[in-house]
Write a structure and sequence with these properties.
Blueprint: H1 11-14, E1 36-39, H2 51-59, E2 65-66, H3 67-74, H4 78-90, E3 94-97, H5 102-105, H6 108-119
Antiparallel strand pairs: 1-2, 1-3
Helix pairs in contact: 3-4
């Protein structure tokens, strides 16, 4: 017979239930699944923050990481991950590079550079 299972932390608890934080942002400021997240401070300088936030800061040190990748690594749905990252940004712990606009994503020269870069791998 096994003992009781430990309680699982709900995703809204990790984000401090700040879903409204993202609502008032403009399209260029909004963190989306394609946004690139970079740590603004080292984990050691962040002070006392939740363990999940520390983990995200470690992953985002250096070149940064896409929101979708963070969500997958945390095994967390995209919406709570985005809200958590918005809160991290509000605390000045991360920065983000917005995803490309429709005009930028249709840029043929950019697509060729991406194709050529992938061919070199």
């Amino acid at each position: 017979m096994t003992g009781p299972r430990p309680r699982r932390t709900r995703t809204f608890a990790l984000t401090a239930a700040q879903a409204a934080v993202q609502g008032g942002q403009g399209a260029g400021e909004r963190i989306t699944m394609q946004s690139l997240i970079c740590a603004a401070v080292p984990v050691e300088a962040a002070g006392s923050i939740p363990e999940e936030w520390q983990t995200v800061l470690r992953w985002c040190t250096g070149t940064g990481i896409a929101v979708a990748e963070i969500s997958a690594r945390l095994h967390m749905r995209l919406t709570p991950t985005t809200v958590m990252l918005t809160e991290l940004r509000a605390h000045g712990l991360v920065t983000h590079q917005p995803s490309m606009s429709a005009n930028e994503s249709a840029d043929v020269k950019l697509l060729w550079r991406v194709r050529n870069g992938l061919a070199q791998i």
